[in-house]
From TrEMBL:
One Pfam family per UniProt: HTH_Crp_2
Protein name per its UniProtKB record: Crp/Fnr family transcriptional regulator
PROSITE patterns associated with the record: CNMP_BINDING_3 (PS50042), HTH_CRP_1 (PS00042), HTH_CRP_2 (PS51063)
GO terms for cellular component: cytosol
Lineage: Bacteria, Bacillati, Bacillota, Bacilli, Lactobacillales
GO molecular function, one term: DNA binding
PANTHER family the record matches: CRP FAMILY TRANSCRIPTIONAL REGULATORY PROTEIN, LISTERIOLYSIN REGULATORY PROTEIN
Residue ranges constituting the Cyclic nucleotide-binding domain according to the UniProt record: 12-114
InterPro entries in alphabetical order: cNMP-bd_dom, cNMP-bd_dom_sf, Env_Response_Regulators, HTH_CRP, RmlC-like_jellyroll, Tscrpt_reg_HTH_Crp-type_CS, WH-like_DNA-bd_sf, WH_DNA-bd_sf
Gene3D superfamilies the UniProt entry points to: Jelly Rolls, Winged helix-like DNA-binding domain superfamily/Winged helix DNA-binding domain
Length: 223
């Protein structure tokens, strides 16, 4: 995908006209990363990493060496904006989970961009507010004592329906390891809980596809 294509797909740049996008495309650096390659890590030059295609996972390495999954950044989303405003990345990594094309905006270019189009500052604040809401949703999950309640609430949030009137299939977007990190438990525990849900006829699971049965909603009701 070319740089202009990246600008057209990313919500951050929606306030700009096509001519304005044409004017700033030279500020972006376009790179392709293969699965497992690091897109950014602590100590790198401050950058905003915009996913044009593919996906990257964000994780933290604690002082004890333990990896903690944070989130998946999908096509059209980005990460690293905090570092453009002076914060230091001392623990976060961004890794491609498949072939991923990224548009990178370094701090020096970002400063030029904001000077040209100050309205992007407001847009950035709006999008950051959404990320804050997602973090709060994760903290809400972690506040639940029982792992099965955390897992059930997480799965329920994958459903796009405002009210459940029939069985529904959802897709788990994370691997067992990533989901376990997200819910602060182990992959073995997640697998065991999913199996238990099946045995209790609350769900039907086939790989990443999970059918939420009416009994699932009745059981958890909803937390």
């Amino acid at each position: 995908m070319n740089k202009l294509g990246c600008l057209c797909k990313v919500p951050l740049f929606n306030p700009l006209t096509m001519n304005e996008k044409n004017n700033i495309q030279c500020l972006l650096h376009h790179k392709t990363f293969q699965k497992g390659e690091l897109i950014f890590s602590p100590g790198d030059q401050e950058q905003l990493s915009i996913v044009a295609s593919g996906a990257m996972r964000i994780y933290r390495i604690s002082k004890t060496g333990k990896e903690q999954f944070i989130r998946i950044v999908k096509e059209g989303e980005y990460d690293g904006e905090n570092y453009l405003f002076g914060l230091i990345n001392d623990s976060l990594y961004g890794e491609a989970i498949k072939e991923t094309k990224v548009c990178i905006l370094y701090k020096t270019e970002f400063n030029k961009l904001i000077e040209l189009y100050p309205q992007l500052s407001c847009r950035l604040l709006q999008l950051n507010a959404r990320k804050t809401v997602e973090l709060e949703r994760q903290l809400e999950l972690l506040a639940l004592d029982r792992i099965e309640d955390r897992l059930a609430l997480y799965i329920s949030r994958l459903s796009p329906l405002p009210t459940i009137i029939e069985d529904e299939i959802v897709t788990l977007p994370l691997s067992m390891k990533e989901l376990a990190n997200y819910l602060a438990t182990s992959p073995e525990t997640i697998s065991r809980k999913l199996k238990n849900f099946q045995e209790r006829k609350l769900i039907i699971r086939k790989g990443k596809k999970v059918t939420l049965l009416k009994t699932f909603w009745n059981e958890f009701n909803f937390l």
